[in-house]
Specification:
heterodimer; A: about 600 residues; alpha/beta; Rossmann fold; Immunoglobulin-like; 5 domains; 9-stranded mixed beta sheet; 6-stranded mixed beta sheet; 33 strands; B: about 290 residues; 3-stranded antiparallel beta sheet
């Protein structure tokens, strides 16, 4: 038997105090009697008069002292140690992915139970154990690193909240694999509702999964049918019982339509909502069923066309550019080699036209243009052809991050810079590339063939393409409009304007740190707005962040007793250490009971 | 203290008187007869003349008939000597049914009987190791004086029965009645002394109901009324049980002691009625002869 704490032993000092109190006792009420003759006689027969001899026969006092010792023993938390529990280091991995928010009891989620178990585990660790706490969903976060302070570790465990993110304990266990190499003896306890591999890790998984009833709204989309708005939604019954629920469509805070839906266990239904109008730019579909996981009962959508830039790419063949364009998010490319049929294509209307080595007789009057390797057209013309020259960048928004870029071309056109244009590529001060806005059309001109240059071989090439596309694209700040919690949103703000600002579903606003960045703070569910103040006014784009569908139903659950490393790797609760404190407390209570009976019978 | 000799007491004495009269008529014969043969008028027996006998007591009629000298023996009629000893220590000043009052009433009633029987009465009050009122009373006309004296008795101080009794010289045989609560380690010495002094001893042991069956509760500091000594007692069932055991043992010890010295032991509860006490006493005493 070992003790978790030794500090309660100083309470043993109370024993002499109890004895002293017993000897002094409380002041008794004075009562006159005729004579103490008989009382003295009684005491003379019953016991001796010296205090220590009195103590010898006083069972009550002895019981009190024994009870005190047992209580002190309980405070010392005695325990029996079994294999594993004696490791010098302990790592607690807690899965806080969205599925851990599933209610396991009345008001207790899987994560609450996991935290409770983890706290018990930490409390039961022997003093001096190095404790690490890791939370895990898509990513692992080391919350407490190899500290010996149990209360701090417990505080960190209690701080873990359920995220809306997909994932499981896998990321956390990956972190453990790299951490444990520095220690000789380590035990890892992983609290998760998903099957994870403990291969190469000493420890076990505490299974938090339990079968629950859950209805989820997996998807909300919209479209136009004969000019009328139609919203479709997929609702799934992830439970084991048939369920009937109301499915409500809201536009902003206004209830637009309600449908009642009955689903068999495990079934999914697609619902269509039509015949309504809304002025809101966002809708949400919500189920009313009371289930174990509430976060997935609602799904959002933004009522706007996808902010995809439609690009018409006129080229004979330009793999380099195609590949580079493929890296740019939010563009939809239509490729054509037939410049003569351009007008037919152009009827559909494109946001951006890329003319590579060819140019139509009449330039489109709407949409932006990138014109490559063309000597002249109605808008500009070259003054000479340069052969075998080096081209350098000029400081401009499209050459941001490309300072010092220099590449060689076998042939390039030297253009006469139009009044609306700004040069960004030069060869010895001769303009070979410029960009500008004419009649609300942005036109970018590159005076060389990529195939005749080493630019595609430069690492800066995709950046240059990206910058040019962003400058010429007419799309909003972001490409997509629907994301899962935790997804990365690519922000393409206009340079030289105000920094973009994001408005969260709860109304809080936050200015981004850069014009173009990956915005990752998307854990909150709902409709976000990305905005940027430009010279032309405020550019606002909304996007919806929804609950990750994969978390609504966990199918790959931990199986108790089956694992690669043996039957004990997956358990239902923390063990490994038998804490005797509760038993000792019961013993103390029994002793108190005995003392009480002894007192009554005295 | 309550009034000791009230109307009820005298009415009980009247009843007692009638009872005693009946007792006497039943053959106890009047007056107190001494066992010593003497010169009274009441004939007792004959015996042959021996040298030195008083000629005046020779029965000449018998000589005429039997030709032998016989001496007439007569029952010598003596005044009975009654010594009543009362323990007046503070311990007697106790009890819801006051022990002192009870003792005084018993003493008064005994005095009445003694004086009615034309015997001589000596009252003794054992006070703090001393003895007062070694004064005699005789004749029923002395009874008011006795009552007057008894009414003056105060119960105070610590008692020392042995020292007190040693102040008594006991010049004559007699019947000595000790009325006390018996809280003395020297009681045996007292009895031995009285027996040594040729006394027929009656011990009237007066105890209050609270002493027989205490009903106290809680943790108490019991204070001795005589010595102011203290004993701390937690009144639990076990304590009371132990006390009662000690009490029973105390009574048993006194009974055995009295038997040992041929002493009439009369235990009295102070809450008992006077006539009850008295007839109990009479019957006990008559058993002893």
């Amino acid at each position: 038997m070992k003790f978790l704490y030794l500090w309660p032993l100083f309470l043993l000092l109370l024993i002499p105090i109890i004895i002293l109190m017993y000897l002094l006792k409380q002041k008794a009420v004075e009562t006159p009697v005729s004579s103490l003759f008989l009382w003295n006689e009684m005491y003379h027969n019953a016991e001796s008069n010296t205090p220590w001899e009195k103590l010898k026969k006083n069972w009550l006092l002895i019981l009190q002292i024994i009870t005190l010792i047992v209580l002190i023993l309980a405070l010392c938390s005695p325990y029996f140690l079994s294999a594993g529990a004696g490791a010098d280091h302990a790592v607690i991995v807690i899965d806080n992915s969205a599925s851990m928010g599933t209610l396991s009891g009345e008001d207790e989620s899987r994560l609450d139970k996991a935290i409770e178990e983890a706290v018990t585990y930490v409390r039961n660790l022997k003093a001096g154990t190095g404790i690490s706490v890791v939370s895990s969903n898509e990513k692992a976060v080391l919350l407490y690193s190899n500290g010996e302070d149990k209360s701090q570790a417990i505080d960190k465990i209690k701080e873990i909240k359920v995220s809306n993110l997909a994932g499981n304990a896998h990321a956390g266990l990956e972190m453990v694999r790299s951490m444990q190499t520095q220690w000789d003896s380590v035990e890892t306890v992983c609290f998760t509702d998903t099957n994870v591999s403990m291969e190469g890790i000493e420890g076990y998984v505490i299974n938090m999964y339990d079968s629950v009833e859950n209805v989820s709204v997996d998807y909300v989309g919209h479209g136009l049918n004969n000019g009328e708005l139609v919203v479709l939604s997929k609702v799934s019954n992830n439970g084991s019982e048939p369920v009937t629920t109301d499915v409500s469509l809201y536009g902003g805070d206004k209830l637009l339509q309600v449908k009642t839906l009955t689903m068999e266990a495990g079934a999914g239904e697609v619902l269509y909502f039509d015949g309504f109008t809304t002025e809101s730019d966002g809708v949400r579909v919500e189920v009313s069923a009371q289930d174990a996981l509430k976060a997935d009962n609602v799904c959002f959508d933004v009522l706007s066309d996808r902010n995809v830039t439609k690009v018409l790419f006129m080229t004979e063949a330009n793999l380099y550019l195609e590949k580079a364009l493929g890296l740019v998010e939010g563009i939809e490319i239509t490729k054509s080699t037939d410049i003569n049929g351009f007008e037919d294509f152009a009827k559909d209307g494109y946001d951006l036209y890329i003319f590579d080595g060819m140019i139509p007789a009449t330039l489109p009057t709407e949409g932006n243009m990138i014109i490559m390797n063309v000597d002249s057209c109605s808008e500009f013309s070259s003054v000479e052809v340069l052969n075998g020259v080096m081209i350098e960048t000029v400081n401009h928004t499209v050459t941001e991050y490309l300072e010092g870029l220099s590449f060689g071309v076998s042939q390039a056109y030297n253009y006469e810079l139009p009044v609306w244009g700004e040069s960004f590529l030069t060869s010895q001060n001769d303009c070979v590339g410029f960009i500008g806005t004419r009649d609300e059309q942005t036109i970018c001109v590159l005076g060389f063939d990529l195939h005749n240059s080493d630019l595609p071989l430069k690492t800066e090439f995709p950046v240059l393409v990206y910058n040019i596309i962003n400058e010429c694209a007419t799309n909003g700040l972001i490409g997509e409009t629907v994301f899962q919690a935790g997804d990365t949103v690519t922000v393409n703000g206009k340079l030289d304007e105000a920094l973009p600002e994001v408005t969260f579903p709860d109304g809080t606003k936050k200015q981004l740190s850069d014009y173009r960045m990956h915005f990752t703070d998307t854990e909150e569910l709902g409709i976000y707005y990305m905005s940027q103040n430009t010279e032309k006014g405020e550019n606002i784009t909304g996007f919806a962040v929804n609950f990750p569908v994969s978390e609504s139903t966990v199918t790959d659950i931990p199986i108790v007793g089956e694992s690669d490393d043996g039957a004990d790797v997956v358990k239902d609760s923390v063990s490994g250490m038998m804490n005797l404190r509760n038993w000792v407390i019961i013993l103390a209570l029994l002793l108190l009971g005995v003392e009480w009976i002894a007192y009554l019978r005295r | 203290m309550e009034k000791i000799f009230d109307g009820e007491f005298y009415s009980k004495l009247h009843k007692l008187r009638m009872s005693i009269s009946m007792h006497l008529a039943a053959g106890m014969s009047g007056g107190r007869k001494s066992n010593a043969k003497g010169n009274s008028v009441e004939f007792s027996d004959f015996r042959e003349y021996r040298l030195g006998d008083d000629f005046r007591r020779v029965d000449w009629n018998a000589y005429g008939r039997f030709d032998k000298l016989f001496i007439k023996l007569f029952m010598e009629e003596k005044e009975g000597i009654f010594n009543l000893f009362l323990d007046t220590s503070k311990s007697m000043d106790y009890g819801s049914a006051h022990k002192g009052v009870c003792a005084l009433r018993i003493m008064g009633a005994l005095s009445y009987v003694v004086l009615e029987n034309t015997d001589r009465l000596y009252l003794h009050f054992m006070e703090q190791g001393g003895l007062t009122d070694d004064k005699s009373y005789a004749g029923r006309q002395a009874f008011p004086k006795v009552i007057e004296r008894l009414e003056k008795v105060q119960f105070e101080g610590a008692g020392d029965l042995l020292s007190s009794i040693r102040h008594k010289s006991f010049r004559q045989r007699g019947l000595s009645v000790l009325i006390s609560d018996g809280y003395s380690h020297d009681l045996e010495e007292v009895f031995r002394y009285m027996k040594y002094k040729n006394q027929q001893v009656v011990f009237i042991h007066v105890l209050a109901p609270e002493e027989r069956d205490p009903s106290m509760e809680g943790t108490l500091s019991l204070v001795d009324s005589e010595t102011n000594g203290k004993v701390r007692v937690t009144m639990s069932a076990t304590t009371l049980k132990a006390y009662k055991k000690t009490y029973a043992s105390f009574i048993q010890k006194l009974e055995n002691m009295c038997k040992k010295y041929s002493i009439t032991y009369i235990p009295v509860n102070s809450d008992a009625s006077l006539d009850g006490i008295f007839f109990q006493a009479l019957s006990q005493m008559s058993k002893r002869g």
